[in-house]
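A further point concerns the way the authors explain their paired sequence and structure data. An entry of this sort, consisting of the sequence and the corresponding backbone structure tokens, reads as follows:
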Amino acid sequence: MMSTQADPVQKYWEKNASDFDGLYDSSSRVSRAFNLVFRRALFERIRLAADEVRRIGNATVLDVGCGSGRTALPLARAGAKHVTGVDFAPEMIALATRAARDEGLAERCTFEVSDFMIAPYKDKFDVVSALGVFDYVDDPVPFLRRMLELSRGVVVFSAPKPSLVRANLRKYRYGRHGVKVHFYSQPTLENLGSDAGAKSTVVHSISAGYFVVCRP
């Protein structure tokens, strides 16, 4: 996870890194069935991001708010030349680094504890991604603008839809820890892209949210 504001979000994800990583578990028949129904969006957005990586071919990727590497590793497997994952939670980076090593992807995946809003990068990336991140960003315009500045190809990110039950449950669950969750409509996302300076913004509807593709 990644946030430009600080402590409640950072502390929450540092404390709950292992639980977050467990959301992607498909090691048993029960967990596969549960994920297929209730966590479909997690896997849809990764598949769509991987499609963008394949379109470019041999791409360099910056995965913002990479968490435990559950997006970065599939992007590497999709053919990315190199994936740089950045997150502000050290425990997330430790999990991601371990997973890359275990899957034989350590040479093509680099993970670092940093705030991408201020971190210096020597070059731009073909793909800049942020999946499951805009949910927790209070001011998304400069956040997306920074992503666009760092991309020479495409920016992709996900955003959750508002809903009567699910959204309110998330607000309550995270709010108890001082973490705000933000929800988006399609027009809001289109305006966000325009306000951040994207040349084009395409919003795809997926389960419980949106997958957005912006061109810098």
Observations:
- Residues 40-56 form the longest helix (17 residues).
- Strands lie at 60-64, 82-87, 109-113, 125-130, 151-160, 200-206, 209-215.
- The chain has nine helices and seven strands.
